[in-house]
Amino acid sequence: MVSLVGIMGNTILMLVLPSLVYLLCSLVARAWAWAWSTSKVSLPLPPGSMGYPYIGETFQLYSKNPNTFFALKQKKYGAIFKTHILGCPCVMLSSPEAAKFVLVTKAQLFKPTFPASKERMLGRQAIFFQQGDYHARLRRLVLRAFMPDSIRSTVADIEAIALRTLSSWDNRLITTFQEMKTYAFNVALLSIFGRDEIGHIEELKQCYYTLEKGYNSMPINLPGTLFHKAMKARKQLGEIVAKMLASRRESNSQATDLLASFMEDKEALTDSQIADNIIGVIFAARDTTASVLTWILKYLAENPAVLQAVREEQEEIMRSKLEESKDGDKCLTWADTRKMPMTSRVIQETMRVASILSFTFREAVEDVEFEGYLIPKGWKVLPMFRNIHHSPDNFPDPEKFDPSRFEKSPKPNTFMPFGNGTHSCPGNELAKLEMLVLLHHLTTRYRWSLSGTESGIQFGPFALPLNGLPVRFSRRTS
Ligand code: HEM
Q: What's the CATH code of the domain at 69?
């Protein structure tokens, strides 16, 4: 019996063993192949240099115009290269495909990243720093307030702000960027709070100016430092927004502005989430729009034929409004702003040439392979908008200011002044609208000349003409 069992056992073993060995081997082989295919450790890092220990290439970056630093690197290493700046290893990407990969198709592998001090100052729950469900919810709420259907009713109010702003420049030498900041601030506040919250606006502005002064200072939170004052102002801003929320709740208002959008949400945001996002939107809306407007004034002054074409387009709109106004309203309407193709092309070309945001920052959340290179987990990844906008492959004769190039649509993913993908700019329609409205009155009623001959660029942090573009203004006489 024992031997029979033994013989049967041996026979079974002899039959089954080869299959077991085969199965085991193929499993090991498959596991190994899978591990090999998913392991990116064997991939090379992109070309480039990491500079000195700790400081990397930070000095090289800041000792020249950053745009020159990036352009030289790209010339030497190609569209993907590594470097080490501001204490972080970075991969710079300057092809349209790479920017799309990071910002759109594989956006989940790259999270937004900001220095901790900036997050604290703006508010940790602000939209820029988020991913996933909370980010998607915030985006829905912000887009609801800034989509064309929501902002079309604000044209007359924006026009009133533009007219007030322009008349304050009459016969003056102005610093264009400073004045444009005031304009963009007032438009942003209108779109966030509507016309009702006048009571708190002055107080809010004062606190925001203090916050702004500390934003780019050393993050040392000791009494007397700009950073400390900014953090105090940030706290006060939260309190002001809380007061505005309380008065909105009491008034049962039917407003359709951003504050209303944040408050209406079924899964309502908390008061501190609302405050962080209101302050965040002001931050995103003001200096960006003001920088673009400043560049527009410079390029129009330097290109008289383009200025003349814009003027003719805007005068035509003015004439048609005067004819209509015999029995109606002279105010600009949303429909008027849709009849400004030449002016719109000037805005596009300005955003391309000036590329006020040279790049944006992301961080790889895991090891990522791109075009045979390893982007290691934790490294910063910078899609280089400016390099893409200045590549002759995407825009022939790229340094030339030529709005007519936008008569044809640019190639996909080559023009990204408002970013791309999940974090692209939800305020882009408002930004374009307020620029068109200002340019209508600016070109039809005023003339301006650049004061001083020095040309150059400064970063604050957005690219700006040197000294904020001092300009002499006067009314047109004809
Ligand atoms: C010409 C003016 C403007 C330019 C060039 C601009 C550009 C941009 C860019 C490039 C981004 C994406 C950044 C990234 O991917 O890291 C962005 C995001 C954003 N912008 Fe703008 N922007 C402008 C005006 C505005 C205005 C007027 C508002 C609001 C009224 C606004 C609100 C925002 C917000 C809230 C975000 C963050 C979106 C998110 O993280 O999901 N921007 N902007």
A: 3.30.43.20
